[in-house]
Structures are given as structure tokens and as C-alpha cells.
Design brief:
The chain is α+β, with helices and mostly antiparallel strands. The protein has two domains: about 1-30; about 45-110, OB fold (Dihydrolipoamide Acetyltransferase, E2P). It is about 25% helix and about 35% strand. The radius of gyration is 22 Å and the shape is rod-shaped. The relative contact order is 0.16.
Amino acid sequence: MNTFKQILAMSAMALGVALPMSSFAQAAMEPGKMDMSQQPSLTDGEVKKIDMESGKITLKHGDIQHLDMPGMTMVFTAKDKAVLANVKPGDKVKFMVVHEGGKMLVTSIQPAK
């Protein structure tokens, strides 16, 4: 019976450690939920495609630090279509993206220097 109590106590301790970690893992999987202290910053990218009518831009980008997102190629929506007017496919750019209303929105974009 003593062994059973020891096993039960160790299981309870293991569960006590595991449960808080599961919420940490869940937060790590959701963009914008982990480290809210990181300030948004410009990200390097290359314009692959622009659809002015829909206000979408395809960018091959580096790591987006403030969203804890690795580099990849993806389609973003421009918060205002006017920000897409000064860039074209092939341009190297620096851009700002925010996670707002469940969407990744490009709020500014400028040619890289």
C-alpha cells in the first residue's frame, strides 16, 4: 500500500508540472500571444506579386520578430491599398505587418536602402 501512495503522489506532482506547461505551449502556437513587450519593427522582404484590386501582396520575407514568425513566402492584405502603389514585383522592401482582427495586415511598405 505504501508503494501505491508513493506512485500516486509522484503522479500528482507530475500532473501539477505538466498542466501549466500545456497553457504555455498553447500560447506559443498563437501569434501575438506570447511576448507582447516586443515592439513592432520593419521586416525585410521581396515583392513577388501585387493584386491592387484585392489589396493583396505576396512577399518573401525574413523573420517577423514581433510576431515570432519565421521567414517564408506568404500573401498579406494591405490595410490601405495605397501603400502598394510605390512597389512592384522584384523590389526589395522593408515593411510593417500587424496581426489585427485575425488577419496579417501590411500597414506600410518602402523600398529597401
